[in-house]
Amino acid sequence: YMLGLSATPFSGTSAAKGNELMRFFGGQVFSLPIEDALERGFLVPYYYYPIYVHATDEEESKFNKYTKTILGCFRDGICINPDLLVKTLRNRLRVISMAEEKQTKIRTIISSVTETDHFVVYCGDGKLYDDSTGEELRHIQSIKRILSEFDYKASQFTATENMAERMELVDSFNKGEISALAAIRCLDEGINIPSIKSALILSSNDDYREFVQRRGRILRKYGDKKSADIYDIIVLPSRLTPKMAVIELRRYYEYARLALNHDGLLAQLDELLNEYDLTLDDVMFYTEINTEADLDD
């Protein structure tokens, strides 16, 4: 017998993948969706605050160029160049993550965060031009500098730190000795930082697993923590690039639907979907698998 334990047994974008996994393990034994964990008090509730910026013409052009390359990786519905596909998908997402207006408005955005301790910023994995040195600077390093400008005791959490260093950072953060962490994806899996009070999402992704893991990490119970705040930068393109809107609004919907302030958020989402001639189905994830009876068929 084999037992698989996963917070995300489904990919979010394909029901078939989840069903294939269930067939391999012989069905699902136990499930606790995040909505049930919130209702039963295993996680703290949260407020979701989307902050809108706009894509430039150049960014949309790059995005559409990558989209054409992605389509070229398939023939008759079969991927013929998986290496190029993965690379191009990553590059297309980086266009959104490193959107220019995110950088120009970052100080205004950070100043709007009400919590001034136990704050995490999820950064992109790209680089920026540093006017002071004339050289490229990693996004996470730039954010760390800006956090320091706002008197945060900031540190960074990346793959370059070894596990002992990471645990020291986590311990200092939980104790309040570090008030802010700038992080990339390595903070999403296997790291327990329950004291997080608020998080700012600067990186744009289309990975359902990441959404679930990241939100679950932010909402863990800790001391007298009653709730958490999630600030999310949503990049809105023109009507000519609806695929970019789909990527951003998927994350918006997934975070908004369970937030304490969901009513107003979902009303805003309806307006945005109408703007891009999209429906709710276009931005929903596959988060359920078929029953065992379906699997037996």
Structure description:
- There is one protein chain.
- This protein has 297 residues and is an alpha/beta fold.
- Helix content is 45%, strand content 15%.
- The protein has helices at residues 15-25, 34-39, 57-72, 82-97, 100-104, 106-111, 139-149, 163-175, 208-218, 242-256, 262-275, 280-283, 292-296, and strands spanning 46-54, 74-75, 78-79, 119-122, 127-130, 135-138, 154-157, 180-183, 198-201, 228-236.
- The chain has a six-stranded parallel beta sheet with strand order 1-10-9-4-8-7, sandwiched between helices.
- β9, α9 and β10 (228-236) form a beta-alpha-beta unit.
- The protein is globular, with a radius of gyration of 20 Å.
- It starts with 14 loop residues before the first helix and ends with a helix.
Number of helices: 13
Low-confidence stretches: 289-297
SSE pattern, N- to C-terminal: HHEHEEHHHEEEHEHEEHEHHHH
* Largest sheet geometry: 6 strands, parallel
Q: What structural class should be given to the helix and strand makeup?
A: alpha/beta
**N-end to C-end Cα span:** 21 Å
State the gist of this model.
By secondary structure, the protein is α/β, with parallel strands linked by helices.
List key phrases describing it:
45% helix, 297 residues, 13 helices, 6-stranded parallel β-sheet, two-stranded antiparallel sheet, globular, alpha/beta
List the helices and strands and how they pair.
Elements: H1 15-25, H2 34-39, E1 46-54, H3 57-72, E2 74-75, E3 78-79, H4 82-97, H5 100-104, H6 106-111, E4 119-122, E5 127-130, E6 135-138, H7 139-149, E7 154-157, H8 163-175, E8 180-183, E9 198-201, H9 208-218, E10 228-236, H10 242-256, H11 262-275, H12 280-283, H13 292-296
Parallel strand pairs: 1-10, 4-8, 4-9, 7-8, 9-10
Antiparallel strand pairs: 2-3, 5-6
Helix pairs in contact: 3-4, 10-11
